[in-house]
Amino acid sequence: MKIGLLFGSFNPIHIGHLIIANYMANHTALDKVWLVVSPQNPLKKYGDLISTYDRLEMAKLATENASNISVSDVELRLPQPSYTIDTLTHLKEKYPEHDFALIMGSDNLVTLHKWKNYKLILRNYNIFVYPRPGYENAELASHPSVTITMTPLMELSATFIRKSIKEKKNVQYFVPDPVLKFIESKSLYR
Fold first, then answer.
1. Which is the most buried residue in 3, 26, 47, 133, by most CB within 10 A?
2. Cα(115)–Cα(2) distance, rounded to whole angstroms?
3. pLDDT tens across the length of the chain (190 residues)
4. What is the side-by-side order of every strand in the sheet holding 99-105?
5. Residue spans of beta strands (DSSP E) within 25-82
6. 101 forms bridges with which residues in the sheet?
């Protein structure tokens, strides 16, 4: 089975993430998509990151009715900081029957050369890239391991959602209803 891994902090998960995952699972060569909740991205600042377990729970709530999208907590059980190559190696050892691929935005493709063992990733894994505004011409876009997809362009960000919640603005339809209820029940991002 071909499984695409969409890594993210999902702080919070929103419809943009779900549209990307759904597109990849249904309009590419991938059979399933696993949303990999990352405790902390080594290339990002800690910032407004809420509990990993709250982010994991929101991702599970968002995907509970999805047939070919699921949530993985694999990075919660690996040494920190979590590097993509280490997670890929672990998953390949644990699930040798699966063929894993990466899903990333074109913004990440631009900075892929900064990732730990990025050449190994390019050599051993396929990368499915979705568009991000302002990142259309990545140097690695023509690499044989890279597939540029026609995923609908989403200009929705978790930063925007957190800011909106903090400002007491309505975020209905930006996040799935069960996620919104969870956020409200725990007074997250206030």
1. 3
2. 23
3. 999 999 999 999 999 999 999 999 999 999 999 999 998 755 555 566 899 999 999 999 999 999 999 999 999 999 888 899 999 999 999 999 999 999 999 999 999 999 999 999 999 999 999 998 888 777 899 999 999 999 998 889 999 999 999 999 999 999 999 999 999 999 999 9
4. 69-72, 32-37, 2-8, 99-105, 126-130, 146-148
5. 32-37, 69-72
6. 4, 126
